[in-house]
Amino acid sequence: MNLRELLTEHLPQMPEAISGIVMALLLALIPALLVVAAVVTPVGLLGVYAERRLSGKIQDRSGPNRVGISIGPIKHHLWGLGQSVADGLKLLGKEDFVPPGGEKVLFLIAPLIVFGGSLALFAVLPFGPNLVGADPNVGIFYVLSIGALEVIGVLMAGWASNNKWSLIGAMREVAQVGSYEIPMGIAALCPVLMTGSLRLSEIISRQAAEPVIWGVHIPIPGELFLGWNVFAAFPFNIITFVIFYICCLANLKRAPFDLPECESELVAGFLTEYSGMRWGLFFLGEYAAMFALSGIGATLFLGGWTGPVHYLAVHGFGAAPGGIGDIVGGAIEFTWKTSLLFILMIWVRWTLPRMRLDQVMRLCYKYLVPAAMVCMLATAAAALLG
Amino acid sequence: MGYFGNIWDGIRTTAQGLKLTTSVFARAVTKGSYTLQYPEENLPIDPVTHRGIHEYDVDRCISCEACAKACPVDCIYIESAPDAKGKPTKGKVSVMTRFDIDYSKCLFCGLCVPPCPSECIQLGARYSLPGHTRDEMVVHFHEGGYPVAEKTDHAKKMIEEFRAEGLYAKKRAERAALGIPTLRPADG
Amino acid sequence: MGVQIAFWLFAILVAGTALYAAVAPKIVHAAFSLMATFFGVAGIYAILGSDFLAVTQVLVYVGGIMVLIVFGVLLTDRVPEEYKVVAPRRWLPALIAGGLCFAAIAGALKSTVWPISSSTPLGDATSTVEGIGRSLLTDYLIPFEFASILLLVVLVGAARLARGQVR
Q1: What's the mean per-residue pLDDT of chain A?
Q2: DSSP track, B144-171
Q3: Domain that holds residue B25
Q4: Alpha carbons A194 and B35: distance in angstroms, whole number
Q5: A302–chain C Cβ distance below 8 A for any pair
Q6: Taking the CB of residue A330, how many other CB atoms lie within 10 A of it?
Q7: What is the CATH number of domain C1-78?
Q8: How many Å apart are CA B166 and CA B128, to the nearest integer?
Q9: Spatial separation of the C-alpha atoms in residues A339 and A330, rounded to whole Å
């Protein structure tokens, strides 16, 4: 359109269009805020609480179990659930500063990028039958690309801190996360091969259908474990799932891959100069991403929101498809699988010692990438047969 | 082959590690962890050798100020009631008007204990003195502090003799006459 | 109309951040504003309905090339002040030369007849993924394989160069 058209036709329509856009943005923003309030915040608070209590019991001590409610006459320890809230309030009250000599704008933006990347993962998580933010045709591919966003945020943080340790941590993080995206992508490709689509809802529905393992059609409902993608090209997809899980741990910078933020070598790696709520944003982003990647793993390999509990809700209790029972059953199913993987991440963190950077790289390129290739070949063969 | 041996080693050792943490976790959950839930549970302390908050027998103190002079940080403050001439009383007739120990300075070194001729100051079993202000860190022992732990036989003998002569009650009356409250009565 | 506004927003993002990347006094700021440019381009791809291309843009450009550029920027020493020329001293010749270039390119853009096909890019499919995959493996197989061989050569060469002398 040329300038004349712009001024005579489109400009008068602008206010309507702008209000339409604003309305559309608000309509898109409100579910996002709801997701943040209803999902990310409890995940963050409960995740931190679970980590501290579980790590305490693993280390033969109790975690925080005293901070509860103390409002007037109501005094109960609440088993320490208030600890996360108290810590959050403490972080909000800390001094907010930028290290002298650091880049102010980049320093301030970096936690937002990292946290935004973690939140962007929640947009495609299928919590239940209709409980999904967006179901793009390139579902799993979108998830893989969000990891790239986080890398940039960490690089920004490491550089803007004007601190050698931060920069070293950031460089290590880029090497680690960038390398582990390769076997992650190959491992995530195996469910896609079985399904024939990148779309997460189709991957889930294929796992709910009757399973076909190596060309053998088994006429039982797929929701009863056997339809899950871990069993698809038996036993190769079990290895694929393990590879995917290891790559998720590396992507999240969780132990044993926590060199970028290791507490004993680099003070806190790229997080060193962050205090108060900015550090809290990084931390919350890490726990949110833990939950989101566990959810993606559950969706790809363990059947997502279909499975035994959902089967029980639909067939046992007779819930109508699309009804409230269906949705609740699906949500419970998704939650227990994701929580299981989440707790496994915590368990692995407090079991395994930290890996050196060259060990991390060797594991990725010499062991995980060939294994993922072999598993992908096997899955392709199984997909051809079935 | 070294390659597959490495893979097997990795899997095997990871499984061993996970089994170990699971066993510790199971034991901690079922039998309880090593942590003491303070203040509901406390570590036991040796009643004789533990060096905690002082125990001081205000009635047997002769105001010689040996403990104050022995203290390396000068945290003991002693004053006794003046006699007819206005000088502070010493010896058996002295009535303590002030015996403060400032626990923000006290090292719990125990150097104040040996010089005392009547063995009336000891380091006791109490270790908890929380407060909100510095003033709460000063304990006013002249208001009738804790009875002295009978840590030695000599101390036991002296306490018995004192009690037998009824001197505890006498000292308490004298302090009451001076207006010093007895918050915790010595065994008298 | 909404699509128009979204397009203009992304276009302003792309052009603005690209301009800032060209004139920013600090190289690090320039590098990171280039990242915003790549995101804007991905947004424009998404508006056009090329979902696969948009995600690939983020994955490859932001995740790979951006990291490469930022590494290059971060690992060089701080640029001394006198080398940072933001405003050229001879601004009038620069303005004339730049203006002529701009006029030439704008004229070329305006006078070209851009072929706009009547069919939507997606056709009957709901996603471009299958179409791209199919054509990559059938019609464009040889360029695809060449590209992969090229990448392999680049990887091996970079590893060899970085390793230095073989002792």
Answers
A1: 85
A2: T-PPPP--SHHHHHHHHHHHHTTHHHHH
A3: 1-35
A4: 50
A5: no
A6: 26
A7: 1.20.120.1200
A8: 33
A9: 14
Residue C27: enclosing H or E segment and its boundaries? helix C27-47
Output the six-digit token pair for C85.
Answer: 């020329």
Q: B16 lies in a domain? A: yes
Contact (CB<8Å) A142/C55 = yes
Could you tell me if residue B147 is inside a domain?
Answer: yes
Do B20 and B102 lie in a common domain?
no
Among A39, A182, A24, smallest CA distance to A118 is for A39
> Do B92 and B133 have their domain in common?
yes
Question: Does A175 lie at the interface with C, CB-CB under 8 angstroms?
Answer: no
| Closest alpha carbon to A278 in A124, A379, A157 | A157
User: Which residues sit opposite B54 in a β-bridge?
Assistant: B123
Tell me the per-residue pLDDT of A58-84, one tens digit each, with 9 for 90 and over: 998 888 888 888 888 888 888 888 888
For residue B137, being part of any structural domain is answered with: yes
pTM confidence score: 0.85
For residue A58, give the H/E element and its range: helix A41-58
Kindly report the length of chain B: 188
Tokens 């979204």 locate to C6
Whether the bond into B39 is cis, omega within 30 of 0: yes
Question: Is A147 close to C63, i.e. CB distance below 8 A?
Answer: yes
CB C126 within 8 A of CB A201: no
Other beta carbons within 10 angstroms of residue B118's beta carbon come to 18
Residue B79 binned pLDDT confidence (cut-offs 50, 70, 90):
confident
List chains touching C (3+ CB pairs under 8 A).
A
Subunits close to B (at least 3 CB pairs below 8 A) = A
What is the bridge-based pairing of β-strands B54-56 and B121-123? antiparallel
Write phi, then psi, for A285 (nearest 5 degrees). -60, -35
Residue B9, H or E segment: helix B2-31
Beta bridge partners of B78: B99
CA-based nearest distance A149→chain C, Å: 7
Is there a contact between A310 and A330 (Cβ–Cβ < 8 Å)? yes
Contact of B65 with B86, CB cutoff 8 Å: no
Label residue B58 exposed, middle or buried (CB < 10 Å: 0-12, 13-18, 19+).
Answer: buried
Retrieve residue C4's tokens. Answer: 């128009």
Q: Count of residues for chain A?
A: 386
A84 within 8 A of A49, measured Cβ to Cβ = yes
CA C103 remoteness from chain centre: 23
* Mean pLDDT in residue range B159-180: 79
SS3 B136: helix
pLDDT higher than 70, residue A262 = no
